[in-house]
Amino acid sequence: xxxxxxxxxxxxxxxxxxxxxxxxxxxxxxxxxxxxxxxxxxxxxxxxxxxxxxxxxxxxxxxxxxxxxxxxxxxxxxxxxxxxxxxxxxxxxxxxxxxxxxxxxxxxxxxxxxxxxxxxxxxxxxxxxxxxxxxxxxxxxxxxxxxxxxxxxxxxxxxxxxxxxxxxxxxxxxxxxxxxxxxxxxxxxxxxxxxxxxxxxxxxxxxxxxxxxxxxxxxxxxxxxxxxxxxxxxxxxxxx
Length: 240
Hints:
The chain has helices at about 10-20, 40-55, 65-75, 125-130, 160-165, 170-180, 225-235, and strands spanning about 1-10, 60, 60-65, 80-90, 95-100, 105-110, 115-120, 145-150, 185-195, 195-205, 205-215, 215-220. It is an alpha+beta fold and about 240 residues long. The chain folds into 2 domains: about 1-130, no CATH class; about 145-240, no CATH class. Strand 5 (about 95-100) and strand 6 form a beta hairpin. The two termini are about 30 Å apart. InterPro entries: EspG.
């Protein structure tokens, strides 16, 4: 993996507009336009271009080819994975990321509080790149279970989850209740496109779990390898 660029939020949205890369900045990024008046907008644009040229990321008002190609890939990938969730629920540590691919060309974009980092992924596939945005965690104790979706809401409201779990009585639901008996420390989802299939991760003090499905969910202990396997399944054509 090699870094293409670290862009401020104004730089990302100015370049996106300059390149007419897409109708809107893609989900899950949350980047608003900087500058409310024409004068403010012109000043923001000039500052962005000056900074990019000073850093060797643009020339004569145009981004360097590697940066331009990466932004265009984010707009029109053949396949992609969006990552959205909380790395740490207590601290409200939000993660927003997009992995985009066309053939063997893969770019990972991660939005932080100050900007967006673009990395070229050379030695890993789409699923591996997506999982890298999470801190490593061991798989939690327990076994794979299949439960109604109502038994596990895709949210971090633990009281709600526990209430739903207690309403059912089969062995798998009881096993799920035991696996999620501690507080949920992190949660979110990977969504594979173009199929739209989602894989949810759930972190607890004892380890990580992965959930996949629609009306019925399969929930299982999962480390990085387990998440990669499930996301790869979500990318497969039969996942539709």
